[in-house]
Write a structure and sequence with these properties.
Elements lengths: L9 E6 L2 E6 L9 H16 L5 E6 L22 H9 L5 E5 L2 E3 L1 H8 L2 E4 L4 E3 L13 H9 L1 H10 L3 E2 H7 L4 E2 L5 H15 L15 H18 L5 H14 L2 H17 L1 H16 L3 H5 L8 E4 L3 H12 L4 E4 L3 H20 L5 H8 L2 E4 L10 E4 L5 H14 L5 E4 L6 H6 L7 E6 L8 E6 L5 H13 L3 E6 L6 H18 L3 H11 L5 H8 L1 H11 L12 H7 L12 E2 L8 E2 L1 H13 L9 H21 L6 H11 L9 H8 L1 H11 L11 H9 L11
Parallel strand pairs: 2-3, 3-4, 4-6, 5-7, 6-9, 10-11, 10-13, 11-12, 13-14, 14-15, 16-17
Antiparallel strand pairs: 1-2, 7-8, 15-16, 18-19
Helix pairs in contact: 1-2, 2-3, 4-5, 4-9, 5-8, 5-9, 8-9, 9-10, 11-26, 13-14, 19-25, 20-25, 25-28
Bound molecules: (2S,3S)-3-hydroxy-2-methylbutanoyl-COA and nicotinamide-adenine-dinucleotide.
């Protein structure tokens, strides 16, 4: 690391009496050690050079600065520290201007706040998203931002982590000048010259006075503290952010900075930071499959959706929201009308909430077309089938698609469990068939399992990933097996939960333990939401091939036999009085559970919440290891992304495989071996787990990009 000289990632150029400092560190100009050193050296050079009257800081490429280099977290810190770089920028004796285009996030915005003046182009995005990584702004952001925009606005930015548009940032006072479209450097130079011509002074943000009315500021902070305590559900850093901003009101600037540093380091050390940073990189890695690296996607301009039920309608909305025209096929006119109504209902809801205009609704629905004739799909580029979960029904649909769709059209199925290889083999173009497994509600849930059958062409897989990007979904590549990645693993930890229920734990205790672990809901609330009939159909389908030696808990069957499928029937494991969305425990379910224990000859015992979670997670991790070993999931991170984006796994724990590494694989294996004493068939340790423990390795070691 050079001392004074410019380096490869921070360029310097003299533009008249302005020193132009350009950060060039692709892909997002992250503030790695070299960038920090280069920035520091540039400011020192500017101060020492009488020919320099002002400094302009800009970013090259599509980003101003994407923040601190996230890859450095958890590693030994490298000098100079970013807070020191920001303080040095602020202390420059010449006016420093930041010209912002594209994202200025986290440490990137903190660099801009340390500058004396800020200009932004209309497409700029400004934010302090550190909370999404389990952190807080650690380079002066918690002290400078409130001084510029007040405590309430600063807290809203830091607690939401959202990216503000340039116009809003200007209105807030975060930036001084809104430039028109064009070259950020030219806009920045023009602004700097204007400031020099006006004799504009060095203006340190630490001296800004938006916090003067201490009582009002403290009241705003107190309100945010109460709200955050309610909302942050086990998250570590949000309340630290509130504490730091209180310091900005109560303490002199440098003491506030010291408080910020202490709180930042506490967040850096928290396991939540490790989990959230893992999730950040995992979802980006999961979006890269071997096929996306090797093949170009086919064009996607027109979408077909077969089936307008729960999933078909949600998928259609997801495509319409992405600006695509959709043609929906249904069995008959009545079903088609129902399909259209299911789609339009979503937009009607947005209009009712004032989040969409009637005109916009009409414009979107104008891109929806419906028919009962498959010929309407003749020019579709990609068709997604979402009809009944029945192989014969699906094969009939695919036969129609094979007949009418143009050559090169991608034919996808949204099946939850069925054998996609068999479905592909049923038509003349198996190479064009792929699984696109959306999650309900399909227009909301981020996860998209891209299920890759044996015969599929690589560019079809690449097309599926391209569609995921267009629909703003989080894709995960999955192999073909019963339930792919998510539902296969779900079936196993659900069995573990059912066994605990029959052995003495109430379904309500299990649900609470799972919620306290960080899931939005437990397995029995989830079953009631999705509908117990779906699981029942799966159990019936699997009955002929179920291992007769395997323990089979029949409690769920007893509820389904009574038609207690959950919310849609007003009762399941919980009672939903008067169509309520939140259920209440049902003493009749307790009675059914007791009766089943007696029938099964089980003497119930008590479970601690901790033991419930150890068994629940051990089952999830163990099956996750099998799924990775069989290459159904390419890497453990693909299992993590699946559960974080599709099954409510608490993001701050990173996912089940990351969680296993946090706990330690030897502990997980020891738990499984202990549980196996009761049920050796169910609790067979996955060979991959045993191998990793023997090698002293962890799941992270298998996440290296292929
Ligand atoms: N550090 C390291 N790598 C980063 C990065 C970062 N800050 N941001 C992005 N990347 C990588 C990413 O992994 C991917 O790599 C590539 O860049 C493109 O990213 C002290 C502590 C900037 C809006 O939280 O939100 O500052 O997969 O696919 O969709 O207070 O990236 O190609 O190998 O996401 O155009 C705060 C995080 C850090 C912003 C661009 N900053 N980044 O989105 O591209 S903490 C953030 C983003 C901090 C200070 C604190 C987005 C983006 P690869 P991408 P994109
Ligand atoms: P649904 O019963 O709500 O809708 C199915 C629709 O398909 C009905 O409207 C029906 O009229 C239509 N249909 C049936 N046969 C047809 C044919 N030959 N041609 C045209 N339309 C036909 O079912 P759903 O919950 O939307 O499930 C659809 C598929 O999605 C299933 O394979 C299911 O396993 C899968 N899936 C469901 C969920 C979920 O949570 N519901 C989640 C992921 C995947």
């Amino acid at each position: 690391m050079s001392s004074g000289a410019p380096n490869a990632v921070v360029r310097r150029a003299q533009r008249g009496d302005i020193l132009l400092v350009t950060i060039d560190n692709p892909p997002v100009n992250a503030l790695g050690a070299d960038v920090r050193a280069g920035l520091l050296a540039a400011i020192e050079a500017a101060d020492a050079d009488p020919a320099v009257a002002a400094v302009l800081i800009a970013g090259s490429g599509r980003t101003f600065i994407g923040g601190a280099d996230i890859r450095e977290f958890g590693k030994p810190p490298l000098p100079p520290a970013l807070p020191d770089v920001c303080n040095r920028i602020e202390a420059c004796t010449k006016p420093v201007v930041a010209a912002i285009h594209g994202p200025a996030l986290g440490g990137g915005l903190e660099v801009a706040l340390a500058a004396h003046y800020r200009i932004a182009l209309p497409a700029a995005k400004l934010g302090l998203p550190e909370v999404q990584l389990g952190l807080l702004p650690g380079a002066g952001g918690t002290q400078r931002t409130p001084r510029l925009v007040g405590a309430a606005a600063a807290l809203e930015m830091m607690l939401s982590g959202r990216h503000l548009g340039a116009a809003e940032a200007h209105k807030l006072g975060l930036i001084d000048r809104l430039a028109s479209e064009g070259d950020p450097i030219e806009a920045g130079l023009a602004y700097a010259r204007e400031l020099l011509a006006q004799g504009a002074p060095v203006r340190r943000t630490r001296d800004a006075n938006a916090l003067q009315d201490r009582a009002a500021q403290t009241a705003a902070i107190e309100a945010a503290r109460l709200e955050t305590a309610k909302k942050s559900r086990g998250l570590f850093s949000p309340l630290k952010i509130v504490e730091a901003v209180q310091g900005a009101v109560d303490l002199p600037f440098d003491e506030g900075l010291a408080l910020e540093r202490k709180l930042f380091l506490a967040c850096l050390d928290s396991p939540q930071r490790a989990g959230l940073v893992h999730a950040f990189f995992a979802e980006r890695e999961a979006a890269k499959s071997p096929e996306t690296q090797s093949s170009q996607p086919r064009p996607i301009a027109r979408i077909g959706v077969v089936g307008g039920g729960t999933m078909g309608a949600g998928i259609a909305v997801s495509c319409l929201d992405a600006g695509l025209p959709v043609t929906m096929i249904e069995r008959d006119d009545e079903a088609l009308a129902r399909g259209r109504a299911n789609v339009d209902k979503v937009y009607a809801g947005l209009v009712a909430k004032g989040r969409m205009t009637e005109d916009a609704r009409a414009a979107v629905m104008a891109r929806w077309n419906g028919s009962t004739a498959y010929d309407a799909l003749a020019d579709a580029d990609l068709v997604i089938e979402a009809v009944f979960e029945d192989m014969d029904v699906k094969k009939a649909v695919f036969a129609q698609l094979d007949r009418v769709c143009k050559p090169g059209a991608v034919l996808a199925t949204n099946t939850s469990y069925l054998d996609i290889d068999a479905l592909a083999a049923s038509i003349a173009r198996p190479q064009d068939v792929i699984g696109l497994h959306f999650f309900s509600p399909a227009n909301i849930m981020k996860l998209l399992e891209i299920v890759v059958p044996a015969e599929v062409a690589p560019d079809v897989v690449a097309t599926a990933f391209a569609l995921a990007k267009k629909l703003r979904k989080t894709p995960v590549r999955a192999g073909v097996c019963d339930g792919f990645i998510g539902n296969r693993i779900l079936a196993v930890y659900r069995q573990a939960a059912d066994a605990m229920m029959e052995d003495g734990a109430s379904p309500y205790q299990i649900d609470k333990a799972v919620r306290d672990f960080g899931f939005p809901m437990g397995p029995y609330q989830m079953s009631d939401l999705a509908g117990g009939d779906i699981g029942w159909a799966t159990r019936k389908r699997r009955a002929p091939t179920r291992d007769p030696r395997a323990r089979y808990v029949q409690i769920a069957d007893r509820l389904c036999e009574r038609g207690w499928f959950g919310q849609k029937t007003g009762r399941g494991y919980y009672l939903y009085e008067g169509g309520a969305r939140t259920g209440t425990p049902d003493p009749e379910v307790d009675a059914i559970v007791d009766a089943e224990r007696e029938r099964a000859g089980v003497t119930p015992r008590s479970f601690t919440d901790e033991e419930i979670m150890r068994r629940y997670m051990a089952a999830m991790i163990n099956e996750g290891a099998r799924v990775v070993a069989e290459k159904i999931a390419l890497r453990p991170l693909d299992v993590d992304v699946t559960f974080v984006h599709g099954y409510g796994f608490p993001r701050y724990r990173g996912g089940p495989m990351k969680y296993a590494d946090t706990v330690g694989l030897p502990q997980v294996l020891a738990d499984i071996r202990a549980f196996a004493k009761e049920d050796p068939l169910f609790w067979q340790p996955a060979p991959l787990l045993v191998e990793l423990v023997e090698r002293g390795a962890d799941f992270a070691s298998l996440n290296q990009t292929k």
